[in-house]
Amino acid sequence: MTTHRFPPSFLWGAATSAYQIEGATQEDGRGASIWDDFCQLKGVIRDGSDGSAACDHYHRYAEDIALMRAIGLKAYRFSVAWPRVMPQGRGAINRKGLDFYNRLVDGLLEAGIRPFVTLYHWDLPSTLNAQGGWTNRDSAGWFADYATVVVRALGDRVKDWITLNEPWCSAYLGYEAGMHAPGYRDRTLAARAAHHLLLAHGTAVQAIRAAGDAQTRVGITLNFTPNLPASESEADRRAAAEAPDWFYEPFAEPILTGAYNARVLERLDGAVEIRPGDLAIIATRNDFLGVNYYSATLISAERGEVHDDNPEYTLMGWPVRPQGLYAVLMRLHHATRGQLPLYVTENGASFKDEVVNGRVHDEQRIAYLRAHIASMHRAIQDGADVRGYFVWSLLDNFEWSLGYQQFFGIVHVNYTTQARIIKDSGYFYRDVIANNGLA
Ligand code: FCB
Questions:
Q1: Which of 45, 161, 182, 383 has the maximum number of C-beta atoms within 10 A of its C-beta?
Q2: Which pLDDT value is given to residue 251?
Q3: d(CA 79, CA 101)
């Protein structure tokens, strides 16, 4: 018996990104990216690792497509590595790099899996970083040119495009917190990068439409960590609603409304030149919005940010708060008056797994997925136009500055042998897909 049934066309998928799974960073003419460089710095990656081998997906993509098929995925979100396609970031195109994505897309379509392609999941070509990277206003044009090359090559078969993944992380973790590549700690640079990333998004949406066909759909993926009231009291609700939302305001708001609010402007002011016309470009119409959701913040009127009485944490240290997914989806539904289709482009959890007799009994991950899928279902019942859901992630992979010590996959990867094992959560997800909902 299915208690939470989804709309018939609901798209169940899984997501990955290039640098986290591909490996083969020195092969077939790929150029270097800021993540190759960053990983070489001492002490920045917790286990001293890098993405040079990762899941060796570059060579094992056919096996990985077979896994997707075994799970029954209807869609797969992956990213194209800019430096594979344009090793210098601009100019010369590397055919061999494009060929890899051609093979991958063909294999997916043969398996009946719809590709969703992210054009930028953090691996900026190093040569562009040497020219200022996202702090250089020209980056908008560089990105649009690269997007055009990829859409011209794959657009006959790929119809769903995501410009950027989580520009919040690119700007603030990369240029202000120094936690991500390129590893700078400078508020001014971060503000500049944030504005240019938005400009790059809007410019690329226009370029992708120009290079694509009538079926082409394009959007962006943003990360949300919403403020939730710590209790149902009127005071807590008001406090949560009025608290600054540092995830929503700098990116979702200008994209959806064509304006920065006063708080964001204060941060950008003096750091970056906002030219007339920029916000119109940033607010170029999208065909959908990608929502990445992992956790939420609890706000109390009296005590500010608080913790649950009985908090459950993932291995990342992120509190498990499935109700936040409902909150984000409903907020976006209202903000767009239901006019913008939503996809949950990432949701999932890292827990420590154990392989026992060739199986992985990851009950906590199953519970996390079940609760979040139910929360999303409630949003759909309440009117949100959610078209699909992508588990993060298909495979255990290179979790950025945390290296190989986090485990988000519904498929376990043994990094010594590269053997894959579908975890119990993968089988759980297979059943969700087969039932089009939770049983
Ligand atoms: C998101 C990233 C993704 C992965 C998950 C855990 O912020 O988009 O690459 O690292 O978090």
A1: 161
A2: 98
A3: 9
Phi, psi of 300 (to 5 degrees): -115, 145
Q: pTM of this prediction?
A: 0.98
Q: First-to-last CA distance in the chain? A: 6
Evaluate whether 277 touches 283 at the Cβ level (below 8 Å).
no
Which of 291, 400, 401, 402 should be mutated for ligand 1, with most atoms under 8 A from CB? 400
Answer yes or no: 232 catalytic.
no
- Residue 284 CA to ligand 1 centre (angstroms): 25
Pocket perturbation via mutation, ligand 1, pick of 220, 224, 292 by most ligand atoms within 8 A of CB:
292
Catalytic residue at 27? no
Tell me the C-alpha distance between 412 and 394, whole Å: 9
CATH class of 4-438: alpha beta
> Residue 2: pLDDT above 70?
no
Domain ranges of the chain: 4-438
* Per-residue pLDDT tens over the stretch 190-211: 999 999 999 999 999 999 999 9
Q: What is the pLDDT of residues 335-361, one digit of tens each?
A: 999 999 999 999 999 999 999 999 999
